[in-house]
């Protein structure tokens, strides 16, 4: 049976996923967050010579304390399904840990514009002192201090800026 089916590529899936935002940070997509790790698509043969197009998306489980995974999984499914796939499978890859280092530089800059201090890059050279030098997203001063280890979600801390006297949230490096 020959029907005019638009060919959907993996690139289309990545583009669709750009429209899926992190439910807690609505300016950043799940792709920029580094949550989506793998995308695959193809056709599988079903009965009577017909084929069915499938898409598989693999995502990291994010981390404990940021419980948006169920919402993101559903949003990812819906966005990919809309492209016209008969079968969509969203898998959570428990072997790949999400870390704030997976966020793209664009995501970190959007986070700061959104009013949340982005996480510092985690590497072995990081000292306590560097971790404490968090730049205020409002005035960019580093004269800030930790007020509460937990903000509106467990992955955020609340800090106070001595320079502009405003409180702000920091996305903790994880
Ligand atoms: Zn400030």
Summarize the structure in words.
This protein has helices at residues 10-17, 69-81, 105-113, 128-132; strands at 21-22, 25-29, 36-45, 51-59, 87-92, 116-117, 144-148, 156-161, 167-171. The protein is α/β, with parallel strands linked by helices. The chain folds into two domains: 10-98, Fe-S cluster assembly (FSCA) (GMP Synthetase, Chain A, domain 3); 110-171, no CATH class. The strands form three sheets. A four-stranded mixed β-sheet has the order 6-9-8-7. The longest helix has 13 residues, at 69-81. It starts with 9 loop residues before the first helix and ends with a strand. The structure holds zinc ion. Zinc ion binds at residues 136, 138-139, 141, 161, 163-164, 166.
